[in-house]
Specification:
The protein has about 240 residues and is α+β, with helices and mostly antiparallel strands. The chain is built from 7 helices and 10 strands. It has one domain: Cyclophilin-like (Cyclophilin, Beta Barrel), CATH 2.40.100.10. Helix content is about 25%, strand content about 20%. An 8-stranded antiparallel beta sheet has the order 3-4-8-6-9-2-1-10. A hairpin with a 3-residue loop joins strand 3 and strand 4.
């Protein structure tokens, strides 16, 4: 019976990351459609890579960016934004994964393959657009490229940063804590868009059991916390 139970034990549908900041907390769900970015982000979070790093670039009505390891011990006024591991992540840009408010995207330099920085990311704040504003965006900034019906609906209701679509990989979205992005986005910044007062982050990958219980709660089911569950969990890796 035990072997049968183990064989049918569930694996969470997604990976989840808790992000704590000086301005509030968030819960992030990573997309399975972007496995290279997902797995790299999971690896860095598990290693504690992001502990104590800053949101070093903040632009109101656009995004908040972090993940530069040089920000951990950076002096005031020190330029930031160039640090990170010595590898890049291949682009996983997909039409249906767009820059709506609360999504996470991978920062990058101007490389033609649109490969992503291995560690630097941004959380989208953006803004809500009118239909006329999207028409103007298509004509001038997108040089005639038309937005899809999905994009127009999202950017007129939830908001976001449509001009980034197709150029950067979006690899997850916040399940809660979007208001934290709003709080960070309005802080006072210098000429390089760095906050005048440091805003630091801490991240934690939810364990297999935490993720399973979160998914149960989202389905309206109670979490499993009983003795048998704890015994069975001994036979599994803490993560997945």
């Amino acid at each position: 019976m035990l072997l049968v139970t183990l064989a049918w034990a569930k694996t969470p549908k997604y990976h989840y990351v808790s992000i704590k900041t000086d301005n509030g907390d968030c819960l992030l769900r990573l997309y399975n459609e972007t496995p290279k970015h997902r797995d790299n982000f999971v690896k860095l979070v598990k290693e504690g890579y992001y502990e104590g790093l800053m949101f070093h670039r903040v632009i109101h009505n656009f995004m908040v960016q972090g993940g530069d390891p040089n920000s951990r011990y950076a002096a005031q006024k020190q330029p930031l934004g160039e640090g990170g591991p010595d590898y890049k992540i291949p682009a996983e840009i997909q039409e249906g994964l767009i820059h709506k408010k609360g999504t996470i995207g991978a920062a990058r330099d101007d490389n033609p393959a649109k490969q992503s920085s291995a560690s630097q990311f941004y959380l989208v704040q953006g803004r809500i657009f009118t239909s006329a504003a999207l028409d103007s965006l298509e004509q001038f900034r997108l040089k005639g490229k038309k937005l899809t019906a999905q994009q127009r609906e999202v950017y007129q209701t939830i908001g976001g940063a449509p001009h980034l679509d197709g150029n950067y990989t979006v690899f997850g979205e916040l399940l809660n804590g979007v208001e934290t992005i709003d709080k960070i986005a309005v802080v006072e910044t210098d000429e390089r868009d760095r906050p005048l007062e440091d805003i630091r982050m801490s991240m934690k990958l939810l364990t297999r059991r935490e993720a399973l219980n979160l998914e149960r709660e989202m389905e309206g089911l109670p979490p499993k916390t009983g003795f048998l569950t704890k015994v069975l969990d001994i036979f599994y890796s803490r993560y997945y």
